């Protein structure tokens, strides 16, 4: 637990004090956010606000992970943590960083061209596909020191579902789909001051709890597994908890500056990075289907876009005034702060339901 707390504290401090530095640097570089002319008129006042702020909490998380490992070396549990860094950490942090790189390229092109046209939709999806595919192969085909892989060949809900064996190739496809879906879901949620940041904090916090709970009831802990039939067959749960806690804390530090009125935006660098990390956490904790509930706000907002596109292409009519869903409520007259807080409440409810299902499964299998 000490290592998780150390990682979270370091990430928070770096992000809280590093973000204003980034604001000054990006402002000096004229890296302001271009604003589309279509959409709520209130957004025009945000033109020129520095973007690419996600770089700060990505760097903060990576540094905090290293700090957490320094703390980990002083603990007796070290014999369970195994190699440093673990394969799980390489996959999770790799997804965070390289999905962030794809988003950074998109942000950079927007700033350079002084308009909202960054990477094309195909280019962005191709980048996500390459990153997701590369780390899927690592997660499925490269075993760690104990022979386990980061991801499994089964579709999972709260644990692997024994009768849903899709094989390694199928698991690679599922892995890529989860990463692309989550990264685009967070990206679509980003658009109002603090909305995606706050929702991500809740989801990452949930995965930190799940990771630590799995660590305390882990099949890799021979002392626990010897006397308990039901344990969690996952790889490096303490690493999962540490990375999720560090990312959540880094986002809290960033939110101090990103909340309304935002002084900096996370940009696609932050949104795609966070989505990639959340997707990786879902696969690594064997909670792939549960992530649909835990990340329910991202799913709802993504579906609003899908519904809008299908409706317009098939009937010529729009279901919402504008998609993603948050902009529909803006055009309906809701204030930005009201939308953000209410959507955070929805995200919190989804996280609570997801954690409730996770814990109820533990009670059922250990009752």
Automatic annotation (TrEMBL):
Report the membrane topology from the UniProt record.
Multi-pass membrane protein
- For this protein, the Enzyme Commission number is 2.7.8.13
What is the uppermost EC class here? transferase
Location(s), subcellular: Cell membrane; Membrane
Which residue windows are transmembrane per the record?
6-27, 48-67, 87-105, 125-142, 162-182, 194-215, 240-257, 264-283, 289-312, 339-359
Reaction catalyzed:
UDP-N-acetyl-alpha-D-muramoyl-L-alanyl-gamma-D-glutamyl-meso-2,6-diaminopimeloyl-D-alanyl-D-alanine + di-trans,octa-cis-undecaprenyl phosphate = di-trans,octa-cis-undecaprenyl diphospho-N-acetyl-alpha-D-muramoyl-L-alanyl-D-glutamyl-meso-2,6-diaminopimeloyl-D-alanyl-D-alanine + UMP
Any one Gene Ontology molecular-function term assigned to this protein's record = transferase activity
Pathway membership of this protein? Cell wall biogenesis; peptidoglycan biosynthesis
Keyword terms, alphabetized? Cell cycle, Cell division, Cell membrane, Cell shape, Cell wall biogenesis/degradation, Magnesium, Membrane, Metal-binding, Peptidoglycan synthesis, Transferase, Transmembrane, Transmembrane helix
Q: Which PROSITE patterns is this protein grouped with?
A: MRAY_1, MRAY_2
Tell me yes or no: is Cell membrane among this UniProt entry's keywords. yes
What InterPro entries does this protein's entry cite? Answer: Glycosyl_transferase_4, PNAcMuramoyl-5peptid_Trfase, PNAcMuramoyl-5peptid_Trfase_CS
Q: Kindly list the cofactors needed.
A: Mg(2+)
Q: Which CDD domains match?
A: GT_MraY (cd06852)
Q: What does this protein do?
A: Catalyzes the initial step of the lipid cycle reactions in the biosynthesis of the cell wall peptidoglycan: transfers peptidoglycan precursor phospho-MurNAc-pentapeptide from UDP-MurNAc-pentapeptide onto the lipid carrier undecaprenyl phosphate, yielding undecaprenyl-pyrophosphoryl-MurNAc-pentapeptide, known as lipid I.
Entry similarity comment:
Belongs to the glycosyltransferase 4 family. MraY subfamily.
The protein depicted here goes by the name Phospho-N-acetylmuramoyl-pentapeptide-transferase
Organism field:
Paractinoplanes ovalisporus
Source taxonomy lineage? Bacteria, Bacillati, Actinomycetota, Actinomycetes, Micromonosporales
């Amino acid at each position: 637990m000490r290592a998780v707390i150390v990682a979270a504290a370091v990430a928070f401090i770096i992000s809280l004090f590093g973000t204003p530095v980034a604001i000054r640097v990006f402002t000096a570089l004229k890296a302001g956010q271009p604003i589309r002319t279509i959409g709520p008129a209130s957004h025009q006042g945000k033109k020129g606000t520095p973007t690419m702020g996600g770089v700060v909490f990505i760097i903060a998380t990576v540094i905090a992970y290293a700090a957490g490992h320094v703390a980990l070396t002083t603990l007796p549990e070290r014999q369970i943590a195994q190699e440093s860094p673990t394969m799980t950490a390489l996959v999770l942090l790799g997804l965070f960083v390289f999905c962030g790189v794809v988003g950074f390229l998109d942000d950079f092109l927007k700033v350079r061209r002084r308009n909202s046209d960054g990477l094309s939709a195909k280019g962005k999806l191709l980048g996500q596909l390459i990153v997701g595919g590369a780390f899927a192969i690592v997660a499925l085909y490269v075993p760690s020191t104990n022979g386990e892989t980061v991801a499994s060949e089964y579709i999972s809900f709260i644990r692997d579902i024994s009768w849903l064996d899709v094989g390694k190739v199928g698991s690679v496809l599922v892995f890529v789909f989860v990463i692309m879906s989550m990264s685009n879901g967070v990206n679509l949620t980003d658009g109002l001051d603090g909305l995606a940041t706050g929702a991500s904090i809740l989801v990452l916090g949930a995965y930190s709890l799940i990771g630590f709970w799995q660590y305390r009831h882990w099949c890799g802990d021979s002392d626990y597994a010897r006397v308990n039939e039901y344990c969690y067959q996952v790889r490096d749960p303490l690493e999962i908890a540490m990375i999720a806690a560090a990312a959540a804390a880094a986002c809290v530090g960033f939110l101090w500056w990103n909340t309304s009125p935002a002084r900096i935006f996370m940009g696609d660098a932050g949104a795609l990075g966070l989505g990639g990390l959340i997707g990786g956490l879902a696969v690594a904790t064997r909670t792939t289907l549960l992530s649909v509930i835990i990340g329910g706000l991202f799913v709802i907002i993504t579906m609003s876009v899908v519904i809008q596109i299908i409706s317009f292409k098939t009937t010529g009519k729009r279901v919402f005034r504008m998609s993603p869903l948050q902009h529909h409520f803006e055009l309906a007259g809701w204030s930005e702060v009201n939308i953000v807080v209410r959507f955070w409440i929805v995200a919190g409810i989804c996280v609570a339901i997801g954690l409730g299902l996770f814990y109820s499964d533990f009670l059922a299998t250990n009752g």
